[in-house]
Amino acid sequence: MGVLLALVLLLGVTLSANPRFLSGQSLRDLLLGASILVVLAAGQAMVVITKNVDLSVGSVLGLSAYATGTLLVAAPGTPLPLVVLFGMLFGAVCGLVNGAVVAVAGVPSLVVTLGTLYVFRGLDSIWASASGRLQINAADLPAGFTSAGTEALLGVPLLAVGAIIVVLAVGDHLRSYRSGRELYAIGSDGAAAGLSGIPVGRRVLTAFVVNGMLAGLAGVMYAARFGTLDATAGTGLELQVVAAVVIGGIAITGGSGTVWGAAIGAVLLTVIGAALPQLGVSAFWQQASIGALILLAIGLDRALALRTARRLRRWDTRAT
Question: Which of 60, 75, 187, 229 could be disulfide-bonded to 136 (CB atoms 3.0-4.6 Å)?
Answer without folding.
Answer: 229
